[in-house]
Amino acid sequence: MIRTRLESAKKYLDDAVELFNQQRFNSSVSRAYYAAYQAMWAALGDPREGNKIWRHLAIIKHFVRGYWFKPEHPNTGPGLLEDKHLPLRRLYSYRIKSDYEATEIDELTAKQSLKLVEEIINIIDEKGIRKCQ
Question: What's the CATH number where 32 sits?
Fold first, then answer.
C-alpha cells in the first residue's frame, strides 16, 4: 500500500503539471497538494492509532520531524526537514484558498508549488520510505 501511495503521488504530480501547462493554476495547486499529501503518507506510513487517516496539518508536522528516515532524531527542537515546514503549510493554504474560497492562484505560486512537491518526492526517493512498516 505504501508503494502505491508514492506512485499515486507521482501521478498526481504529473496531473498537476498538465493542469499548469493548461494554465489552470487553481486545479494545478490543488492536485500538487494532494501529491505532497500522498507522498508524505507513503514516507510516514499509516497513522499509529488504528485505521485512521492523517490530518492535513499533522502529516506536515510529522513529515518534517524526519523520524521516518532517522528514528533516533529527538522529539524536541527543529525537525530534520524544517525548511519544508512553512512551504508545505503554504501549499496546504493555497489548496484551501483554491478549493474552498475560489481565490485565484497565480502562475508563480503554482510553479513554486510544483517545484516543492518535486522536492518532497525526491527527498522520499532519496531517503526511502519508513523501514518499520
Answer: 1.20.120.330
Domain-located, residue 133: no
- Residue 13 CA from chain centroid, whole number: 10
Per-residue pLDDT of the chain (133 residues; tens, 9 = 90+): 567 899 999 999 999 999 999 999 999 999 999 999 999 999 998 887 666 778 889 999 999 999 899 999 888 889 999 999 999 999 999 999 999 999 999 999 999 999 999 999 999 999 876 543 4
What's the number of domains the chain is made of? 1
132: in domain: no
Residue range of the domain that includes 60: 2-127
Chain CA centroid to CA 121, Å:
8
pTM: 0.90
